[in-house]
Amino acid sequence: MKSLAIIVTHPIQYYIPVYQQLAKACKLKVFYTWGEQGAALKYDPDFKKHIQWDLPLLDGYPFEFLENTAKDPGSHHYKGIINPQLVENIKTFKPDAILIYGWAYQSHLAVMQYFKGKIPVWFRGDSNLLDETSRLRKILRKLFLTWVYQHIDLSFYVGNANKAYYQAFGLNETKLVFAPHAVDNERFSIDQGRSAEQIRTELGIMRHEILVLFAGKFESKKNPLLLLKAFSEITLDHTHLLFTGNGELEAQLKESAQLHHEKDKLQKVHFMDFRNQSLMPAVYQACDLFCLPSQGPGETWGLAINEAMAAGKAILVSDKVGCAQDLIIKKKNGDIFTSGDLTDLKNKLKFLCTNRESLFAMGQISKEIIQNWTFKHQVNVLIKTLND
């Protein structure tokens, strides 16, 4: 049985099932570079609250927390991850390959440089080229990232926009392997009808009415204010909008929603605080249409789309959402609007929300599409590559 070392900053809920499945198919060790504090309850500046995921993140696979000697430890900057023992600990483990999540940390880049040519160095990230940048910035980024990716042997891309990104910085087809971005489809698809109906009842939403959902951080990158403005400026009978989450735009969103309520007593806007992972399937299942109106920069994929699709929901996203070209088939399971274009969003939101039955049919297509985007597929690709 071959061995695989994984280098990642901290336990991330979307990756744990991959590690658990890998541990059954190879000799695995996950090296957490943030240190033990990376797994603890911590303040999330985007959600504006302390977050502790309610799913087990350290069960079912071998791992090691490395000492992080950074003065300001964390994944928010390059010098926040410094692990003097990382290279030696990897050498002691003697892996047949190393999979690194993210290069923008001192230790991670050092591992890429040290092991290149000694052990196959694999890479996993979800960046894309959807954000607009100046010509000078493009040139500088190309020079730097072309140098960075010279230190890897293979990159496992998550979708088409991510693949185009790697190709732009010098990786050809021989160095690119598709391993789909995934969530726990089963957990989000298990029937939560009773809990979903309770959510709708508590919000005062009748069975025949349509619920549009935004779930995530209330931040500029995700542009929830545009969705609220679009909803407020169109006439949608028996339609509600729910914002689930917290963040820096919360007060502004609630103030704007209150002004809307004063003008229109029929179209309702609701708010629900951040819900942990175990509660989110019911939230998705309570809605009819999920909308992610992101403007970026940095909306690399949008895994909430995977979750909503696994829950069987129609989708409306902006063209700045990394997964749009992979997961959304226009007029089949939802639609894509031009980021920041209020008129385009209004038109597509109004069209989608004219009929609840059509949204249900789109949701069933979403569920079919997402069946191919699984942890099992991702793990099978990794194990096949390791054994080849």
UniProtKB/TrEMBL annotation:
MF terms (GO), sorted A to Z: glycosyltransferase activity
Alphabetic keyword roster: Transferase
Matching CDD domains: GT4_PimA-like
UniProt keyword tRNA processing present: no
Residue ranges occupied by any Glycosyl transferase family domain in the UniProt entry: 197-367
Name the UniProt record assigns to this protein: Glycosyltransferase involved in cell wall biosynthesis
The organism of origin for this protein: Pedobacter psychrotolerans
